[in-house]
Write a structure and sequence with these properties.
Elements (H helix, E strand, L loop, with lengths): L2 E2 L4 E7 L2 E6 L3 E2 L8 E7 L7 E5 L6 E7 L10 E2 L6 E8 H6 L2 H10 L1
Parallel strand pairs: 1-4
Antiparallel strand pairs: 2-3, 2-9, 3-7, 5-6, 5-7, 6-8
């Protein structure tokens, strides 16, 4: 069991062109609204604290959770490997705001950083 996704605050991030939300908390998947996709991030173990693999569930070296508006292309091995460094917007928003704000506006926030 994890934290209620609707009650958390999130960092706005960009994963290979996709606007997502990031939290260090493990989220209760039953609290994630329909149409939002939840994944867990494995720590890369690099000194820059960058994202490692993204999976449906991470048990070891877990860094946090991400919420996306679209499914990530998880490979046959059950993993997604970001091709580019994850961009942090420096913005902190709620899941409700993420659902209401347009993709264009969220990408503008990411562009400010």
């Amino acid at each position: 069991m994890g934290f209620d996704a609707k009650m958390e605050g999130y960092d706005l991030v960009e994963v290979d062109g996709r606007v997502c939300l990031f939290s260090y908390m493990r989220l209760d998947r039953n609290s994630v609204p329909e149409g939002i996709f939840c994944y867990e991030v494995e720590d890369s173990e690099r000194e820059d604290c960058s994202f490692g693999k993204i999976k449906e569930r991470v048990e070891h070296r877990r860094m946090g959770s991400i919420l996306c508006r679209e499914k990530l292309p998880i490979g046959a091995d059950g993993e997604y490997h970001p091709e580019n460094p994850v961009k942090m917007a420096g913005e902190y928003i709620s899941l409700g705001e993420f659902q209401e704000i347009s993709e264009t506006e969220l990408k503008q926030w990411l562009g400010r950083k």
